[in-house]
Design goal:
single chain; 4-stranded antiparallel beta sheet; two-stranded antiparallel sheet; mainly beta; 107 residues
C-alpha cells in the first residue's frame, strides 16, 4: 500500500528524535556567566543596529551577520563586574542586561 506524502512527512517528524520539554532548561545564563568570552559557549556583545548584513558570505546569513557582532569589554564598576558596550548603560551582568543607543540606533 502506498502512503500519502503527508503521512510520510508526519512519520519523519515523529521519528526525528527527542525534543526539549517545556520545563527543561537549555541554558543557564546566570549560572554560566563569566568574565571570559566563549566560556561555556557564551559570547557577550552587541549588534550596532545597522543591519547591513555585509558578512563574509559564511553562515550565519541574513540581515545581521557574525561580522556585525561587536564583543563587549569586561570591566569593574562600583556595583561589581559587567560586560560593557561602548555607550552608557549598554551592559550585561550575571543578573540582567540593559540596552543602549549607538549612533541613534538601538544596540
Amino acid at each position: 500500500m502506498k502512503l500519502p506524502a503527508t503521512l510520510m512527512i508526519a512519520c519523519v517528524v515523529l521519528y526525528a528524535g527527542p525534543t526539549a520539554r517545556a520545563e527543561e532548561a537549555l541554558a543557564q545564563s546566570k549560572d554560566e556567566f563569566s568574565g571570559t568570552q566563549g566560556q561555556n559557549n557564551w559570547y557577550y556583545g552587541y549588534y550596532d543596529g545597522s543591519g547591513d548584513g555585509k558578512g563574509d558570505g559564511n553562515v550565519p546569513l541574513g540581515r545581521y551577520t557574525h561580522n556585525d557582532f561587536k564583543p563587549m569589554q569586561y570591566k569593574a564598576t562600583q556595583w561589581g563586574y559587567e560586560w560593557a558596550g561602548p555607550v552608557q548603560y549598554l551592559n550585561v551582568t550575571a543578573g540582567g542586561m540593559h540596552p543602549g543607543v549607538l549612533a541613534g540606533r538601538p544596540a
